[in-house]
Design goal:
Blueprint lengths: L2 E4 L10 E5 L6 H14 L3 E7 L6 H21 L5 E7 L2 H9 L4 E5 L14 H4 L7 E4 L10 E4 L6 H15 L3 E6 L7 H12 L8 E6 L3 H9 L4 E7 L23 E6 L7 E2 L2 E2 L10
Parallel strand pairs: 2-3, 2-5, 3-4, 5-6, 7-8, 7-10, 8-9, 10-11
Antiparallel strand pairs: 1-4, 6-11, 12-13
Helix pairs in contact: 1-2
């Protein structure tokens, strides 16, 4: 059972919550800036978390507080009016993040400078992907706070619904166009026709988003590197998994990716009856979070 110590007043509200996990790495300030930008764009608040299995005495507790204070200062500098809370998790970080994800719109994680979106080997990312209840944003040190579009990768699988849900929400929040791509689609289906139908569904709750689709032939890593250059976010999807430590699953999307921007990983869910968002039916039962 984990113990939570809240260093600022923390109250549940109707505002979208963005959860940031930080450590003392060089990537942490970049992740903090990205998380603050996402919270501000989505009209929400930011909760910054740090795990302290080592915090057994006052000096170590002060170290944890310093890590949280540094991240909070970065976020506050980027967005002075943003609501920010900090948490120390004394226990298993992944379980703490999974609990926080239940009420969050997005979880933000920083990856080491040598990591790529297609080679996620770092805890807690490897344990969180596929298990979180909300999308997970992976940020690296070289990622910059800019970009002229949101790019989403689809492949005709049921996970596409989660991808498009997250992609439309991100594009709307940042007031950017959405470019949907299918890399090297199989000949067994017509991606343009199917994706066009989905885009039409999502344009109902998100009329402000200008979305286009392109089927691209080529090596996935090369295509994604080209299309993600200059983008603010790349959105990919993986199916939900149940057990900790299991393979991330359906890794066709992840190992091949060499994104030039942060990667938003949408977690696919089981099919179900259509839901309604802003009065519109969404395809195959996946309603965008926070709308």
């Amino acid at each position: 059972m984990q113990a939570l110590v809240v260093h600022e007043s923390y109250r549940r509200s109707a505002e979208p919550e963005i959860v940031l996990c930080v450590d003392d790495s060089a990537t942490a300030p970049y992740a903090a800036a990205w998380a603050a930008a996402e919270a501000a764009a989505r009209g929400g608040r930011l909760t910054i978390m740090h795990a302290t299995g080592y915090a057994v005495d006052a000096p170590d507790t002060r170290r944890a507080t310093d890590i949280l204070d540094t991240a909070r200062e970065v976020a506050r500098r980027e967005h002075p009016r943003l609501g920010i809370a900090t948490r120390i998790v004394d226990g298993d970080l992944v379980h703490g993040l999974l609990d926080a994800a239940e009420d969050a719109q997005l979880v933000v994680l920083g990856l080491g400078s040598g990591a790529t979106a297609g080679a996620v080997r770092e805890p807690p990312a490897v344990d969180l992907l596929g298990r979180a209840s909300c999308p997970v944003l992976l940020v690296r040190r070289l990622d910059v706070l800019s970009g002229s579009s949101v790019v989403a990768c689809v492949d005709g699988s049921p996970v596409d619904t989660a991808v498009l849900s997250s992609a439309f929400a991100a594009a709307a929040a940042h007031r950017l166009p959405l470019r949907v791509i299918d890399v090297d689609p199989p000949r067994s289906y017509e991606p343009a026709e199917l994706v066009a139908a989905e885009l039409q569904c999502w344009s109902g709750p998100y009329p402000e988003v200008r979305a286009t689709f392109e089927a691209v032939q080529g090596r996935p890593a090369t295509v994604v590197a080209q299309r993600s250059a200059g983008a603010r976010l790349l959105v990919v999807g993986i199916p939900r998994r149940r057990s900790r430590g299991a393979a991330v699953g359906s890794t066709d999307r992840l190992p091949a990716l060499e994104s030039r921007c942060p990667v938003l990983v949408a977690i696919g869910s089981d099919s179900g009856p259509p839901r309604r968002v802003n009065g519109y039916d969404t395809p195959w039962g996946a309603a965008p979070r926070g709308r």
